[in-house]
Design brief:
single chain; alpha+beta; 4-stranded mixed β-sheet; two-stranded antiparallel ribbon
Length: 310
């Protein structure tokens, strides 16, 4: 090269090659890592975004619709608002495989008003349990649950095999303990979901099993609290009697008396008389104990009968 500085332009960039400085001349840019491209847009519909659905394409299932009772006042208010403002896209129905998980009142109102298209969002729940938990949480957080709501919800959950109680069988102490443990675990799971204490779940179950139809109807109608209903069951149900050993011979006392007689008696005749006396005393004591038990049982029966009459 005749000149001391040679200029080369690559991609509109001038590079000087000086003889006194060793600088490689780049003819082209190679091995440049590619710029990450934007991910391809999926042409399929985004089901996590609310969109309009034909109401005829939406299904209902008793599994979800029976979890909560419909409040006529709330339903009437939704109908009135929907009639004036149409179906609000801010409160879409929640679907799982085209089945309503949450939003049954809005669905009923739309059907009554003959609205053809409604807003809905489809969520891919993992399984039935996850969908039910979502439905309960949504309703629980949206409104204040009454005791009537809790009573109804706990009984509905108990109908399901995975969360309900297993039938308790009286096949011995071992099975009783196992059944009680299963019932306790089930109560804990249900209580966490409904946001109540495990004891409240057990109270509801006791009311459903032992309360009179009148008491159960009052709880369902909201005219009696769960605690009030449980108290009526506790008052009318006799307490479990403690196991008592049946009256029988006082073997320890008899043995002690015989030992004393043997030490004190000098002849066989005296010993025989002493033994006979000990046996007579034991028989009298046994008869006295049995008589006292019979009196106690009679008194308890009379008290229980008076409670029933009241």
């Amino acid at each position: 090269m005749s000149s001391e500085v040679e200029k080369k332009t690559i991609n509109n960039t001038t590079i000087e090659d000086r003889k006194d400085v060793t600088v490689p001349i780049i003819d082209e840019i190679k091995d440049t890592p590619p710029v990450p491209s934007e991910p391809e847009q999926d042409d399929t519909e985004d089901y996590a975004t609310p969109c309009q659905w034909a109401i005829t394409e939406i299904k209902t299932s008793e599994l979800f619709s029976s979890l909560f009772t419909r409040n006529p006042t709330v339903l009437e208010s939704i109908e009135k608002d929907m009639q004036e403002n149409s179906f609000d896209s801010a409160h879409p129905l929640v679907l799982w495989n085209d089945v309503i998980v949450d939003g049954h009142c809005r669905y009923d109102a739309a059907k009554k008003l003959k609205i053809e298209d409604v807003w809905a969002v489809s969520i891919g729940f993992t399984d039935e349990d996850e969908a039910i938990e979502y439905a309960i949480r949504s309703q629980r957080d949206r409104r204040n649950l009454t005791d009537a709501d809790r009573y109804h919800l706990i009984l509905q959950l108990d109908k399901r095999d995975k969360r309900g109680r297993k039938p308790q069988q009286d096949n011995g102490d071992t099975n009783k303990a196992e059944n009680n443990a299963n019932s306790g675990k089930s109560a804990t799971r249900t209580a966490k979901l409904v946001d109540v204490s495990p004891s409240t779940v057990e109270h509801v179950r006791r009311i459903a099993d032992k309360a009179s139809p009148e008491v159960r109807d009052k709880v369902q109608a909201g005219n009696m609290t769960i605690n009030e209903a449980y108290k009526t069951v506790a008052e009318t149900t006799p307490a479990k009697a403690k196991r008592k050993r049946k009256a029988g011979p006082d073997y320890k006392g008899i043995l002690k008396a015989l030992t004393q007689a043997i030490k004190c008696c000098d002849s066989d005749k005296e010993l025989a008389e002493a033994i006979t006396k000990v046996i007579d005393q034991a028989q009298k004591q046994q008869a006295k104990s049995k008589a006292k038990e019979q009196v106690d049982d009679t008194v308890k029966k009379k008290k229980h009968t008076k409670r029933k009459v009241k």
